[in-house]
Amino acid sequence: MRALVALAALAAPLVYAQPNVEAGKAKVATVCAACHGLNGVSVSDTIPNLAAQRAAYLEAQLKAFKDGLRRPAGPVSPTATMAAIAAQLSAEDIVNVAAYFAAQPGASQVAQKSPLLPNLAKTHVSFPEDYKTSFVKYHTINFPATRQVRYYYANKAAVDAAKANKPLPAGSYLLAEVYAAKLDANKQPVMGKDGFFEADKLLLFTAMQSGPGWGNDIPDMLRNGDWNYGIFTLEKQHRPGVNQAECFACHKPLDNVSYVFTLKQLGAAGK
Q1: Domain range for 199
Q2: Where are the alpha helices (DSSP H) in the chain?
Q3: Residues 165 and 263 reside in one and the same domain
Q4: How far apart are CA 263 and CA 235, in angstroms?
Q5: CB 260 within 8 A of CB 254
Q6: Model confidence over 6-56: pLDDT tens digits?
Q7: Of 213, 211, 230, 224, which Cα lies nearest the Cα of 261?
Q8: Same domain as 259, residue 145
Q9: Where residue 40 sits, what CATH number does that domain have?
Q10: Is residue 85 domain-shared with residue 198, that is, in the same domain?
Q11: Is residue 125 in a domain?
């Protein structure tokens, strides 16, 4: 009799919890909408639309990000960003979010792309006019894929904390000058004697700055303490349309190093 009961149990169809579309919408509103839009139509041409995509496909992709099966090509990549977000989703969240996006009209039925979320389009970061004299230049990185070289600067508050092996405090500021690399006749970056690309044309500035309470309006799944991010033009003005969500998600896994990729180099500055 016990064997018959066991066989009957094996033969019975598996029962799965039904997805909760409203719960999926709530989760999307807190984090996913920052890039993919509340209705699944993304805020940028470089971010895929998820509206009307099959739920099973979305579930599979989110699970692959969460489980590390889709590996990032580097620390700053769309895959790294998604992996950081998916790692915070429960199995139930994944099912609900996938069901919600699958239930939305296709992107072709929507008149325009989604707007940036106001709290992620706004930044408190201001340009440090005196950085050349008051900041420390502490690191250089080549970016072969974009044929760029970047020079990193930090203010005294950040350098002093990093040297003391303390978390970077409110008031910390890190700035990068982004240069196009000088190219040779074969359109390849010219390498200097120091092992870094020779800088040619200054393109823009990227920055991260922290201040008391600056993270209060950022969703918990994205928040990087009290850091805010910014991109500045050569005129030292904020580049319009910058979505901080991409920066937050990329730096999110670095909570144990003050959300900074270059904390080790910062701590060694001036030694």
Answers
A1: 131-267
A2: 2-11, 21-27, 33-36, 55-67, 78-86, 91-102, 118-121, 131-134, 156-163, 244-251, 263-267
A3: yes
A4: 28
A5: yes
A6: 444 444 443 456 899 999 999 999 999 999 999 999 998 889 999 999 999
A7: 224
A8: yes
A9: 1.10.760.10
A10: no
A11: no
